[in-house]
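Chapter summary example.
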Amino acid sequence: MEKNAIQKNLPRMGNAWVSRSAGFRYTLGIMLWVACSVLPISAEERRSDSRSLSDLFGDVLSENALEICRRARQQPLESRFQTLFGHVFPPETENVRISIDFLPTNPSPPVAEKDGSAKSPLLATEAQNRLPSGGSLVSPALELVETARRLGKLEELRDEIKRRSPTGIEQIKARDAMLLLVVAATANFEQYGIQLNEFMTLVRESPITDPVRASEVVVVWHGVSQEQTRTEIRDLLLLLREQMKFDGNSHRERVKRHIFTLNHLLDEQLVQSGSTPPEQTTGESSEYWHPVSRRTAHTRGEGFPDPAWSVTPTRARHISSHDDDYLYFASPLRGNYEIEGDLTTFGYREIRLAVGTIWAGPLYDHERLSWGNFRRELPHLKLDKRFSNFGEHMHVRVVVRDGQRTTSINGRDVFTSAQGPKSDPWVAAHSPWPASGEMQNVRITGNPEIPEELDLIANPDLPGWLPYYDESAGQSGSNWNVSEQRPSTLLERLNPFADRSTPILIGRTSNAPRGSSQESLLRYHRPMLEDGTIEYEFYYKAGELEVFPAVDRLAIVFDSDRVGIHWITDGKFDTTGVDPANFHPVSNDQPIPLTPNAWNRIRLSLKGDNLEVALNEQSIFTRKLEPENLRTFGLFHYSDRTTAMIRNLRWRGEWPRELPPVNRQELADLTLEQTLDRGPELPVVFEHDFSRGLPLEKIWISGK
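The structure predicted for these 704 residues follows.
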């Protein structure tokens, strides 16, 4: 069997796939451990069996927090308690085991129904009708404390913790962390504060040997989830953030992102409200500015946290990150226009203006320029002249005129690139992980054209498209690219009269073993936030040339006999157990009007949350989208066995058709204009004889 075919059936440990033998040991170890945990045997027999399992299989269970919690939740409370107790307090040692995992971000509805759609404890409300979901911490330790509370067994739990005498530093931290959780569950907050200070001292003074920091993460996650402990937990959260700030250990990456997110969100709440945090949004948007994140199978499968933005009159702030995060202007713009504003500079507060997916801004050394697009950051550019000093803000202006865009910073041109009729038309602010940037007094002026329809593959570089998996796009030889000639001898053979002048988007067949259900997904960066229609043509030859529309994780898959749903997985980062070949048929009383060996037309329409898909002008699928669906359009196919061919891909959206005047642009600060309007009329000419000195009553002097 080929390697890729094996991989899809193997369990994951951390960020890597285990080998066939390790996977067997892992699965068998789980089965034997569960059996030994629930069978009615004596404590001494259980300890003996557990020691044997540990010798045979190692401590693989510590890496399997999510599966342990899934199994425990299916059991009655008393059995659940015993299962979790046996995991957290392994009878073969004096240690306490704390293991953690994170739910995938924005999981599909079947996964959310199985695991719950819990989110960060500080993210609570809707934004733009989209709900944050997933990305939350899972730990048998947390589940055990909650189960013990419901059963009235907190005292039993505390006695077991105090009975343990661990030796290693991480085991001591695990024991003290469990004791903190139990004390908090008993609402003894005075004692909680005392023990939290002792725990912080231990964390501060001990070496970092656990790349996951499981004990610390469990304590801070639980602390911020309880209103009574949020203020006290802040110092520990800040300590962890500082310890992780310069850490490059990739195994800890998702933990770092959650620690940074909790730190930013908690600071935001406590600053706003003293010490009583209000409800916090997860991407508060507005009439004209909407949050969007760069999301991939990696960022979502690993459970990276949802982003948070705040948009208020005259100011927009990026509070916390998912990955690279954006705030998009509501309408696409072409022609001649300018966008300018005051943006924060450095110290993890970077934010840049983006036009046509391209952003640019100075680096902290004042000598180089950071720039990139929606897909990736590009190599830094050397500035002709070093910037002398930046304050907290810099004034940034992007001018688009006559097919060219120019970025200037504090009045100095630093970056120029083409921005023509085939360029991506969206305007946005870009703030990367882990920055919390802010922009104010942002205004768009000029005479831009707002198109009613967008050709989504007019630019062969595909600047607005992002592969969801580890694939490439937009270049010759990429997994996804645009060919302005007939793309292959295959299409020449199938349709010798194909139009040579029409660009064709090609999703290529991969090297994965045929039948391995290798998912391939290309997504357009700007979601369908408003009502609209996307139409395209695709060439269909059963089993050879196939491609299907997708909206977030929902792919609508069909052949000549049936239509149904495929829930898109996170590939090698997926921990949900969803089969990449999953297919859920939906009832359809009419024949599927699919023409083989020919071009067919798809129309995907959104009105409110109601989705309709029409094939060759006949409706074949309708569904009301869940609030968690992010409405990101994509093109899906199985690359192990098919090639995708698409042409004439166009989007008509009901975005605002006119640029609002500056006095109606919510991020524009009109304080100066309003002050001048209220003040006395200034003279056109000012005369003074400076031989008589300075008129200090009329001139304000500053500096040396």
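To summarize the output: The CA atoms of residues 71 and 593 lie 44 Å apart.
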